[in-house]
Amino acid sequence: MALKTFNPTSAGRRHLIQVDRSGLYKGKPVKSLVEGQNKNGGRGNTGRITSRRKGGGHKTAYRLIDFKRTKMDMTATVERLEYDPNRTGFIALIKYEDGTLSYILAPQRLAAGDTVVSGQNVDVKPGNAMPMGNMPVGTIIHNIETKPGKGGALARSAGGYAMLAGRDQGYVIIKLKSGETRMLPAACMATVGAVSNPDHVNEIVGKAGRMRWLGKRPVSRGIARNPVDHPNGGRTNGGKHWATPWGKPTKGKKTRTNKSTQKFIVRSRHDRKKSS
Predict the structure, then answer these.
(1) Shortest CA distance to 139 belongs to which of 178, 194, 177?
(2) What is the C-alpha separation between 12 and 119, in angstroms, rounded?
(3) Would you list the DSSP string of 71-90?
(4) How far, in Å, CA of 127 to CA of 103, rounded?
(5) Angle at CA 266, nearest 5°, toward 261 and 269?
């Protein structure tokens, strides 16, 4: 997909850069593969805001994506590629030999008419899914499970991928784009290739209204507030470290609490490379 620029007919279009989606399907999604979703404006079950700066946004229908790929050894044909308003990457509609339709994350270099299959030992080509223990070392993968049968959880956004770096006694070692190297059970499924739409990082929104269409409300910086409203308020920062409105440290403060899987992290993404 190429990038698309616009003539500066307005301030909002002057710097606007979007991904050219002219090659995608322009109709509505398959009705049996979508469901409605309610908006909560960032509020939890008590009615209080638990995630700030959310609200509004265009109405969207949720596309049911097959993250598990459990239909083994049955070839499916890619019917078309579609835009999904709920994610940054594109999705692909596939049709199995028995006539079943399904949505999957579209990898790069996948086109309408191609065939994909999932199984224990299948060809290593984009769109095919298999256990990571059966893949060659060095394979680029996405939609990676963290527990067998749970469904893909890692490397699912636009341009995302990981590399299979090795094997070790029933586990595989993968290297993520963040720099983290970790171990996962070899029975976990993953899909070959990198997620589509890698040019998403080059998009420029162009105007604040487009962010409101996405359901993102304005952000007021802490240092721009008054001292009564924020610990970093008053323009001087008060000699304090950057903090949340409630005084908790931020910008570099480690918040990881899942210590039960700490032993599977071979190299943290926070580790600096040692200079030789």
Answers:
(1) 194
(2) 48
(3) -BT--EEEEEEE--TTSSS-
(4) 12
(5) 90
CA angle 205, 207, 212 (to 5 degrees): 85
- Determine the length of the chain: 276
What 3-state class would DSSP assign to 138? coil
Residue 235 has pLDDT above 50, yes or no: yes
What was the pLDDT predicted at 251? 87
Q: Please say if the pLDDT value at position 273 is more than 90.
A: no
Q: Are 188 and 153 in contact (CB under 8 A)?
A: no
Nearest-CA neighbor of 135 among 146, 144, 72, 269? 144
CA distances 271 to 48, 166, 184, 260, Å, are: 37, 20, 20, 20
Task: Give the mean pLDDT of the chain.
Answer: 93
Whole-number percent of the chain with pLDDT over 90: 84
Q: What's the gap between Cα 125 and its chain centre?
A: 21
pTM: 0.91
pLDDT tens-digit readout, 21-74: 999 999 999 999 999 999 999 999 999 999 999 999 999 999 999 999 999 999
Beta bridge partners of 180: none
82 burial (CB, 10 Å; 0-12 / 13-18 / 19+) is buried
pLDDT tens digits for 129-186?
A: 999 999 999 999 999 999 999 999 999 999 999 999 999 899 999 999 999 999 999 9
